[in-house]
Amino acid sequence: MQGLVSIVVPVYNSEKTIDRCIKSILNQTYSAVEIILIDDGSTDSSRKICQKYIDSKDIHYYYQENKGVSAARNYGIQLCHGEMIGFIDSDDYVKPTYIEELYDETVDLSLCSCADTLEDGKVIKKSETPMEGVYDKINLDFIEVYKTGLLGVCWGKLFKKSLLQELEFNENLMVCEDTLLVNQYYAKAQKIKFVKNINYLYTVGNANSLNNSKYSIKLLDMHRMANEEALKCLKEDGTFTKKDLNFKRDLFLMYYADYFYYYLFQSTDKWKMRKKILSELYQKVYFKELEAQIHKILATESKKYRKILLLKKPSVELFICQIIKQCQKRKDKK
């Protein structure tokens, strides 16, 4: 007998994609599935599209005032009856064997390879699992798994309900809320299943778009908070090495360094505004961490960040350049 799997789908103004999403779940080769649709205050025709499916006993629709995707997911978790829970975004869709290949009642977490696609279905990026099959977490290389990017998102996975209910998505975070939860959950999990097949299709908008909202100081602080909370859980688990924890910390520093790069080279703001933001970035308490580790970032992203060495602009930019030059000199002497 198949164990029941609950799929939570947060919905917000998804009239163009929600029908495809629901149909892809209904088309699963695994039959014991309930779909929990959480409408987070949509103002388009998403509600109407969802309601045409609720005659089915396996599809449940709930509406809430707009509170954000984390609140929608948390609400959905409370309503699930399945022993395993998964999340699928309303813009995305899954292949027919998605749940069948992920499901394994003996594991705490299962995850599959995923692909980023444009709205026309064109694949622009693949995130593939580094192995296939079931493993004890203690025998896994955390860094190898983390580099895939699959531990940064909540979709493309099945979670054990009994463990997931001990956690919740942080509703105060606008970014990294799923990264934090998945990291917290990974710290609790003992047995992990990997599926090599690309069964989850994540739909992105304009893959080449860059905007200031993506690089706001507020989002940077949220990213930092989520990273620190995740590190705390991983450290408390006791199975992660110092190298693992340093790797996770360095990922944030690379993200932080990318802010400098953006405001130096890519922002369309006037120099006066960019200089102000760069000054704010410099004054962050974690700048000293960046200064200490910048040689690692330069080595990892050498082509990208070496451009900074050529700058001759004054003030903040020059200051940053001097730091990177000094770190590069230290690196070259080793």
UniProtKB/TrEMBL annotation:
SUPFAM superfamilies registered for this protein in UniProt: Nucleotide-diphospho-sugar transferases
A Pfam family per the record: Glycos_transf_2
Gene3D superfamilies for the chain: Spore Coat Polysaccharide Biosynthesis Protein SpsA, Chain A (3.90.550.10)
UniProt-listed CDD domains: Glyco_tranf_GTA_type
TM regions (residue ranges): none
Domain of life according to the entry: Bacteria
Domain Glycosyltransferase 2-like: 6-108
Protein name (record): Glycosyltransferase 2-like domain-containing protein
Organism ancestry: Bacteria, Bacillati, Bacillota, Clostridia, Lachnospirales
